Design the sequence.
């Protein structure tokens, strides 16, 4: 099945949105919209011709042929196909905006690779989705490097909050778990609470220190917001 037919099938038969089709087929929404809009326009014209007694058969056949053909694009105003410095600057700028949004906790505003490709196409750049993905992969999708560290007993104690899903008396619940883990030996101490308020934060510390029989040289927090009450 060619690209155009697949788009039309998903839109008209499977009732999928243009955004869903764009993501599934990794095609810009501009392209998806063009296929659908041109098809609908020609379909309406064909419907009018069929109702018009004065229309001739050749007009109808020609329109049907156009409906099954791939749309033609005007590429005269498009910029170079190559991954130019200008295109890379555009991508770098969008990645930078993504990073700022990520730091501010705006996860819903992050642009995915397909969104970045669509943005470039909308601006007139003739560039492939794979080219965009490869550029981002080579320069931004770096794997984290972990450095093995050695600890002595009593050196480091790590704390973090987590969620625990339980069913109590037939009722599903989500409780907060305060968890301490020693860097040496991986000893765990955990307690469950209904929230992460300061009194529970202090309570889990006191009970952990009493259970361990002392305190470590340092306590490490994954997020310092855990130690601050709202």
Sequence:
């Amino acid at each position: 099945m060619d690209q155009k037919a697949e788009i039309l099938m998903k839109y008209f038969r499977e009732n999928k949105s243009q955004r869903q089709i764009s993501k599934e087929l990794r095609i810009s929404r501009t392209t998806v919209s063009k296929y659908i809009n041109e098809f609908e326009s020609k379909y309406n014209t064909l419907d009018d011709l069929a109702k018009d007694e004065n229309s001739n058969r050749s007009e109808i056949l020609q329109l049907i042929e156009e409906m099954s053909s791939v749309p033609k694009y005007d590429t005269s105003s498009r910029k170079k196909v190559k991954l130019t410095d200008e295109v890379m600057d555009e991508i770098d700028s969008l990645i930078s905006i993504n990073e700022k949004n990520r730091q501010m906790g705006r996860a819903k505003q992050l642009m995915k690779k397909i969104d970045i490709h669509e943005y470039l196409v909308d601006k007139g750049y003739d560039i492939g989705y794979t080219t965009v993905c490869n550029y981002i992969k080579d320069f931004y999708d770096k794997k984290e490097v972990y450095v093995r560290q050695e600890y002595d007993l009593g050196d480091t104690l790590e704390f973090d909050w987590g969620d625990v899903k339980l069913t109590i008396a037939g009722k599903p619940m989500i409780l907060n778990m305060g968890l301490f883990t020693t860097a040496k030996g991986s000893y765990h101490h955990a307690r469950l609470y209904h929230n992460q308020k300061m009194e529970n934060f202090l309570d889990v510390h006191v009970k952990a220190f009493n259970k361990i029989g002392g305190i470590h040289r340092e306590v490490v927090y994954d997020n310092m917001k855990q130690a601050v009450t709202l």
The mean pLDDT is 78.
